[in-house]
């Protein structure tokens, strides 16, 4: 990878971005909805890899399982399970993401779930763009496992 990360995140190794396209500003200065935008994509890749690591690889089954994890309701639950483990900096990012006004609510979620899902995506985006990939991977992995236990 040729890209270098902006800023420095919540502990762990600082790594370059996956692709060599830098954000126009450091992660801490990006708007929460911009962080949620990239966080949504990064989280989707994580969920897909998580599912592909399992034995049942039928495309329809993968899609059905993925929707269990990437829905606003599931992302909100994942965040609530992880919140006790977040650092102050991460809690601040979550608060900013939760308070961001997006203007739209998906049909399968209520406003509270959607705001918490946006906050979770914002956190993932922040950790990604700040180069704190180890922490991001740790939280996503732990959260997915907690979600499965809760089901």
Brief summary:
This protein is mostly helical and 151 residues long. It has 6 helices and no strands.
Key features of this structure:
151 residues; mainly alpha; 6 helices; disordered N terminus
Written overview of the protein:
With 151 residues, the protein is mostly helical. The protein has a single domain (27-150), classed as Ribonuclease iii, N-terminal Endonuclease Domain, Chain A (Orthogonal Bundle). The protein has six helices and no strands. It has helices spanning 32-52, 59-70, 72-82, 88-99, 111-129, 133-150. The longest helix has 21 residues, at 32-52.
Helix and strand content put the structural class at mainly alpha
SSE order, as H and E?
HHHHHH
CATH architecture descriptor: Orthogonal Bundle
Overall form: globular
- Annotated CATH topology: Ribonuclease iii, N-terminal Endonuclease Domain, Chain A
Whole-number count of domains: 1
**What would the average pLDDT be, to the nearest integer?**
87
Separation of the first and last Cα atoms: 38 Å
* CATH homologous superfamily grouping: Ribonuclease III domain
Q: β content, as a range?
A: under 5%
Name the helicity range. Answer: 55-70%
Report the radius of gyration as a whole number of Å: 15 Å
Give unreliable regions as ranges.
1-11
Query: Can you identify the CATH class?
Result: Mainly Alpha
Number of helices: 6
Major β-sheet profile:
none
- What's the β-strand tally? 0
């Amino acid at each position: 990878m040729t890209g270098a990360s902006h800023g420095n995140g919540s502990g762990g190794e600082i790594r370059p971005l996956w692709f060599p396209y830098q954000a126009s500003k450091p992660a801490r200065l990006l708007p929460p909805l911009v962080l949620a935008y990239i966080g949504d994509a990064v989280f989707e890749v994580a969920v897909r890899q998580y599912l592909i690591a399992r034995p049942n690889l039928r495309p329809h089954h993968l899609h059905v399982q993925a929707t269990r994890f990437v829905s606003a309701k599931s992302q909100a639950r994942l965040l609530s399970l992880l919140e006790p483990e977040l650092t102050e900096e991460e809690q601040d990012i979550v608060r900013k993401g939760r308070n961001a006004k997006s203007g739209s609510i998906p049909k399968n979620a209520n406003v509270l779930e959607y705001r918490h899902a946006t906050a979770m995506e914002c956190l993932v985006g922040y950790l990604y763009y700040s180069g704190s990939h180890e922490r991001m991977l740790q939280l996503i992995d732990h959260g997915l496992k907690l979600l499965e236990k809760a089901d």
